[in-house]
Every structure is written in C-alpha cells, then in structure tokens.
Amino acid sequence: MSDNQNATVSGTQPSSCSSDPTAQKIGKTVAYCLIFVVSLAGNTVIGIIVYKTKTMRKPINFLIVNMAMSDLLLPTIFFPSEIQTLYTDSWLIDGPLGQALCKLTYFFTIVSTAVSIQSLVLIAVGRFGAVLYPLRSPLISSKLCPFFILVTCIVAMACLCPYLFFYKLVEYHERLVCHWHWEEAFGESSAENYFVSLFVVLFFVPFVVIAILYIIIFLKLKSQRKPGEQSANAGQQRQQRERNVLKMAIAIVLGFAVCWLPNAIGGLLLFFASDILFHYYLFYGSRKLCLVLFIFASDIRSCGFHYFSIVASFMAQANCAINPCICFIFSRNYRDGLKTLLS
Fold first, then answer.
1. Which letter does DSSP use for residue 79 in this model?
2. Predicted model pTM
3. In which domain, by residue range, is 79 found?
4. Contacts of 278 by beta carbon, 8 Å cutoff, 6+ apart
5. What is the pLDDT of residues 299-326, one digit of tens each?
C-alpha cells in the first residue's frame, strides 16, 4: 500500500508547492543510499553472527534473521528502481523482462513487510511461552522454527499475490511507467476492500495480538521479585535474561510501529478519507478532530498531504536499517558477535 500511495502522490505534486527539484533528488538519493548501506551491512552481519555463533542458534534469533533477510529485499530490489526513476523518470527495461521486473519489484517489497510483521508475532508468541511457561517445552522450538519461517513466506506471498497481476508496465507520455491497474486485472471488484483487508489482516490484527501478549508478559514479570532481592540462583539469572531479551523484542516492535504507522494512516486517508470522513462529519458535526482530518485529506494533491506522504514513506523504508541497530543496542550477544567478526 505504501508504494501505491507514494507513487500516486508524487506523481501528482501540486504546482503550488514551492520546491527545488534538484535539491529533492539529491536529498532522496542521499537518504536512499544511507538506508541502503546501513540496512545491507547491518542485516547481513546479523545473519552471519547467528550462523557462526552456536549459542545464538535459538528460535528468537532465527526469527530475527528471518526479519533481517526480508528487510534486505527493500534496499536491494526497491531502492535501485526508485533512484533510477528520480533521474530518468522512466522504466529502463521494456518487454517481458521489464514487465516481470515491474511486478516483482513491488511484490517482493510488500512481501518483505508482511514477513517482518509475522516474524514479530512469532517472537511475541515465543516470549509469551518462555515467560509464562518456563518449565514446559517452548511454543516455538528450534526444530519447528524453520517450519514457521516457511509459513510466514507462504502466507505473505498468498495474501499479496494480486500485486503480481495489477502492477503493469505501461507507456505514459512517451515514457515507461510501472503503475497499478486494478480494474484491468480484477474488473469492478473493490480495490479499497482488498487494501483494507490487507491492513486489518497483516497490520492491525498482528499488532493487537502482539500488544496483548507483551502486556501479559509485562504483568507476569512485574509480579515476580526483582533481581537482587534474593540470593543469586539459576532461576533469577534466567529471569534477568528473559527481561533483556524482552526489551530487545519490544524495541523492535515499537520501532516497526513508529516507522510504519504514518505510512499506514496515509494509505487509509488516500483511499477513504475524502468520502468516509465527510459522512462521519455530517453525522457527528461537533467532532473537531474529524473536521481537521477531513480538511487535511480531502485533496490528495494538497501540499500538506504530499509532504506527509514523503516523510511517511521514508520512515517506513528506514525500518529495514533500524532493526539491526536495535539488535546491537539492546543485545550484548550481538555486540560481542560483531566484535568477534571485526577482530
């Protein structure tokens, strides 16, 4: 959804928005290159550390590696095409290969996000089992983890396979453009219903589940005695390790939510705000917030929405570089692994 939103708005920038096109191109290029370098280096190192360190071959680290590998799809597939279109304003490759690249670029970009969200859910489920039922076998064991990782990929591709059909390379004003054509692929069926279903299934429901699980985990840990109040023992050390792992997991979730929430809101405004908020305002005329949102989103060509979409898009794309940084900040094991690689 983010890619559609960004392409639609950027393609209809109002002339009243004063800006320097050259400065915008340079700024976007620098931002893309910075995210590319940090993401490529950080996520690759995460995978190498887990692969080379036997003590880190645990379900949560396997799931973090799954996120890291999916995060690599965005900078390696999506960023080059975005930078290229900044300067040529046209898709470079024509024919069947160009059509395939057009479809696969946006398909794998959104699949990357879906896989990351599902990995966050599995991490939360694993932490839930480890904290609440420490003496039982783990809900996500090392043997089952590859199966769950495979399921995340299959579910993401199954839910997002329409992207392979409604994205199409077309000629527009004597240039090639990779754009979405929903009606040509699916007729009069509602595109809005599909994208809202994606938002609910792949974003809203997972984050509600994650929030519930971490609230339960937090309450469970809070009810336990803090480290240091009793003599050191194996159980106490285990609880401390669980707390450290939990901090890293929650930081990854919060980082993902902060980066992607503005983009998700922008996508919903793009599809629905001009109609739904208007009817809502007529029914609840005293709701000032509704009026503000209606004025803000009533025209997607407005400068405010244009600038908001640019910032929201870059925040979402920066998440692939933020995740490895969170791992190194919150996990001593990853920092030690990095020191070992550099030594």
1. H
2. 0.80
3. 19-227+242-338
4. 294, 298
5. 445 677 777 778 888 888 899 999 999 9
